[in-house]
Write a structure and sequence with these properties.
single chain, 433 residues, alpha/beta, four-stranded mixed β-sheet, 19 strands, 29% helix
Length: 433
């Protein structure tokens, strides 16, 4: 299986997710801010909402992805991964279990964990961690506790269901993110271990882009507009030095332009994809106060005759239109009313996930955003209706048909992330030019 992502909206063929589990129930309200949560989450409802989202993916991918699209080598990937006949949905914990069965992977993870947590006495447990059975080790990584280590605990890792932040596949490369906050160090290290040792990543392992230890870059700030154009948010979680650490490497791997979007450094918009996402190659959902109404916050880094040229962009819309050579439509998150824009950005109205060009998934509660999408030709369809309509018929939209599929996310959105935040695409089919 060859991993590649050439755009934000190419037909989805493989994606990594994590359905919330016991780790979200272990969040102490007194520790929620340190764990990057604004509220505590009710596990049972959050799990069901996430499973509903994944069910949409499977139903859509069974029609969108032809069986021969990727030339899957089924012997080289997880047998436990959830799969349709063609598209695949991988659970990160399944990949982790398979990875940690390798001695070298366990040693790598354990030693890097000890190095990453110098303020704890976890270094004293190295031999015990290496002796844990694989299930107990993963339990400790995700929840921070396991009966196999009764005298030691860490905070849980409740943000694991935001798999988008852990890495970003760009063309045939993978950027392994580096966490901005200590609360997420274990998740990012787990993803690095999987990428280094799991056979699923064999095709891309020679093209790993690492982040310097003094920098931070998170996947929610990286958007692949086209094979030659990548957007990177300079945000609360991705620093300017982090941007620079990946720009030169991207420009040496097919990318011609890296567009840096300087953002407000605040919790409400911690990543670029919380205020801006692609719905189709020429349509985006944008939070007006941070994207449409702001100018002069764009810097373009381009590969020109073997050197990096730097230029300023007037606005994100005009920059994209110039570099992509096509008109772009920015659809307003929350509609025309400022209060609605702010409210729906808060509940991830701008954070949609594209299953294919013009086929997106998002939280049902963002009604004004979906009303705007309807004005731009999208059919709004509830999850249950979508699953009924294509129960026995493959989902294959005709040219020009556009769908915005909604699902409940009233618990999931308490973690401050939407459908794009909860997905890490590793294969998208290249769109015709």
């Amino acid at each position: 299986m060859k991993l590649h992502v050439y755009s934000e909206t190419g037909p989805l063929e493989a994606v990594i997710v994590h359905t919330p589990g016991r780790e979200v129930s272990l969040v102490n309200p007194d520790r929620r801010e340190q764990l990057l949560f604004d509220d505590i989450i009710f596990e049972a409802d959050a799990r069901q909402e996430h499973l509903d989202m994944v069910e949409i993916f499977r139903a859509a991918m069974s029609g969108l992805v032809p069986d021969t699209a990727t030339g899957h080598d089924k012997s080289a990937v997880s047998s436990s991964a959830s799969a349709t006949p063609a598209g695949k949905v991988f659970e990160i914990c399944d990949l982790a279990l398979e990875t940690l069965q390798q001695e070298q992977a366990r040693i790598f993870f354990t030693d890097e964990l000890i190095r990453s947590l110098p303020g704890t006495n976890i270094r004293l447990l190295r031999e015990e961690l290496l002796r844990l059975d694989t299930g107990s080790l993963l339990e400790f990584i995700v929840t921070g506790v396991t009966p196999a280590l009764p005298r030691f605990s860490l905070d849980p890792a409740p943000n694991l269901f935001f798999t988008r932040d852990l890495a970003a596949v760009v063309n045939e490369c993978i950027i392994l993110s580096r966490a901005a906050k200590p609360a997420r160090v274990r998740e990012f290290l787990l993803m690095e271990t999987i990428a280094r040792f799991h056979p699923l990543f064999a095709s891309i392992r020679k093209n790993i882009i690492h982040i310097g230890e003094q920098d931070s870059v998170e996947g929610g700030d990286i958007l692949v507009a086209s094979p030659e154009l990548v957007l990177v948010g300079i945000s609360e979680r991705t620093t300017f030095s982090g941007l620079m650490s990946i720009t030169e490497k991207l420009l040496n791997h097919r990318v011609r332009h890296v567009v840096a979007v300087d953002m407000p450094k605040q919790r409400a918009s911690m990543h670029l994809d919380t205020i801006f996402t692609f719905a189709s190659p020429d349509e985006c959902i944008a939070f007006p106060p941070a994207i449409i109404d702001r100018t002069n916050n764009i810097t373009v880094f381009s590969q020109v005759d073997g050197r990096i040229a730097v230029s300023r962009g007037e606005s994100l819309k005009k920059t994209l239109e110039k570099l992509l050579d096509r008109p772009m439509t920015f659809i307003k998150c929350g509609g025309e009313d400022l209060v609605s824009q702010v409210r729906e950005q808060w509940t991830d109205g701008a954070n949609v996930f594209a299953l294919a060009p013009g086929v997106i998934v998002g939280y049902e509660r963002n009604t004004r955003t979906f009303r705007e999408l309807e004005r731009h030709g999208y059919e709004i369809i509830l999850q249950d209706e979508f699953l009924r309509r294509w129960k026995d018929t493959p989902f294959r939209p005709a040219p020009g048909e556009k769908y915005a599929i909604t699902f409940q996310g009233n618990e999931l959105c308490r973690g401050r992330g939407g459908a794009r935040c909860m997905t890490l695409p590793i294969i998208r089919r290249e769109e015709p030019s």
